[in-house]
Amino acid sequence: MPLRVAIDDAVERAVRAFLAADTTRERGGFLVGRLAARTGDATEVRAFIACPDAPSTAVSLTFRAEEWQLVHAHGPVACGAAGIVGWVHSHPSMPVEMSGRDLFIQRHFFSDERQVAWIRDPVDGGEALWHWTDDGIARAERVAAEGAGP
Ligand SMILES: [Zn+2]
Q1: Which uninterrupted H or E stretch holds 17?
Q2: How far is the CA of 52 from the centre of ligand 1 (A)?
Q3: How far, in Å, is the centroid of ligand 1 from the Cα of 64?
Q4: Which SS3 state, helix, strand or coil, does residue 103 take?
Q5: Ligand 1 centre and the CA of 20: distance in Å?
Q6: Are 101 and 109 in contact (CB under 8 A)?
Q7: Cα(78) to centroid of ligand 1, in Å?
Q8: Distance 60 CA to ligand 1 centre (A)
Q9: How much distance in Å is there from the Cα of 149 to the middle of ligand 1?
Q10: Average pLDDT per consecutive 10 residues, the chain (150 residues; last block may be shorter)
């Protein structure tokens, strides 16, 4: 069953603006919210921590100790408590597939299958959500945020 992910409108706007601010290189950050409590529930993304200083190139992004400290400042991820629920980064003018480096990050730092990797191409607007499963990487499904209109 694919993970369902609900992203707040304010986060959507903030992420789009941040990723589009520089399309010559990848940009990214962390997603804060609540993990799905049960199978069938949605992981909720409620805040975005931009990492403007994370070293990057046109085709890669690196989270250093400085960036991970932002994650630790938000505490451990637990059911029902706000915490890091995933990460987002741009693939300017590239397919929104998980690269080898992206897979490494997901497997080692976001391996809970309720945590999401959100990849967006700020140039053409393409995007995809991914999550780790027992069978490896798989697509997650975007659903409307609670309280959002039709
Ligand atoms: Zn990537």
Answers
A1: helix 9-20
A2: 16
A3: 15
A4: helix
A5: 15
A6: no
A7: 26
A8: 6
A9: 31
A10: 93 98 97 85 92 94 90 60 88 97 94 95 97 95 73
- Kindly provide the b/e burial profile for residues 10-44, where b requires at least 16 CB atoms within 10 angstroms of the residue's own CB: ebeebbeebbeeeeeebbbbbbbbbbbeeeeebbb
**Nearest alpha carbon to residue 18 among 34, 7, 33, 30:** 30
CATH number, residue 124: 3.40.140.10
Distance from residue 27's CA to the centre of ligand 1 (Å): 9
Centre of ligand 1 from the C-alpha of residue 82, in Å: 25
> What is the domain extent for residue 42?
4-143
In a domain, 39, yes or no: yes
Q: How far is the CA of 25 from the centre of ligand 1 (A)?
A: 11
Q: What is the DSSP string of 54-81?
A: S-B-SS-B---HHHHHHHHHT---BTTB
